[in-house]
Fold:
Amino acid sequence: MKTRIWFAAVVVLVVALVASAQDLPRFRWENFTTTNGLPNNHVFCVLVDGNRVWAGTENGLGLYENGKWKVYRPADGLTHQAVLSLALDKRTGDLWVGTMGGLNRLSAGRIDTFTQLSSGLANDIVYGVGVQGDFVWVATAAGASRLNKRTMQWSIFNERNTPMYEIWTYAVSPGEDKVYYAVWGGGLLEYDVKTERWKDYNDPDGETEMVLFKDQGLIHEITTSVSYIDKIVWVATYFGASRYDGRNWHNFLKKDSGLPSNFLNQIKGVDGNRAWFSTDKGLAYYDGTNWAVYRPTLDTHKPEMLLRDAAGNVSSVPVDTAPAHNYILGVDFQGDDIWVATAEGLSHGIRQKSPAAMAQAVSTQNSNQSK
Structure:
């Protein structure tokens, strides 16, 4: 009798895990390229502003609104045609644009520019930008910069006044209490807003080719992206990803997670438990337990969606569409939908109802009809 009860419990648990994995987000993908208005197919970044979508490409900044594209280039006032990063000031509606030739602000139809020569910007190559109240934080190829929007005064942070031993800052994620920088080759840098002090986090094993001490600290020094949300830090590197809650580290590798690759270009947290991972072999989503991967297959380029449950079981979901390319550079959210920057176009993932939700809707409809 006890054996039957135990077996039944195991079956219920397995079914629950499988059902949970099956409920991961599903999308119908529509893709944009130069053939339908995108400025360039190589999309470095994407930002959603209500019904408007901004795309930073190798040859201009694209604005998608009401089904049409508008393009901004140096002839329109940008400091450079290659747009690497975007940030929205939600209080003013201003758009901050990082390029290979400086920082720009789009405000009420006007474009203001900031460069090394015209301002206190540390370097003209702007990999990342973020807005925090009255401050704009900038990640450049020669350290971090901060602009006070009220006084228009700049501060520069580098190896002279922070623990930064590499000055190639690759991304920034500001929060109300902390600001985090991904420093390429220099780990993770934290700025405490209250104390105005800096702290660095590094790979404890010091190895560049392997991970010796998993979950003992940052997974690797070559950090490419950081996302700070709900007091949780998500970090992307070229050798896996990390999650840090202020006390404990949890690291993710392809061999023991649902990541399709350890090479990450961006990470974006949804909350403290869920995140999206932009890799060179597809887009991955983690819900805190299960994983999903969205991509064209690496060999035939046919649409593919893979699921990995908590037990490590991998299954394939039949799909008709996929993101424009498997090399993913960034994402942003528009309600339940997702926009994806890839090396060969911009993709819009339109959220579809899961099988469980559809079954529930049918059951409710049938129940209502029978009354």
Confidence is low (pLDDT under 50) at residues 1-19, 358-366. The chain has one domain: 24-370. The chain is about 10% helix and 45% strand. The domain at 24-370 is CATH 2.130.10.10 (Methylamine Dehydrogenase; Chain H).
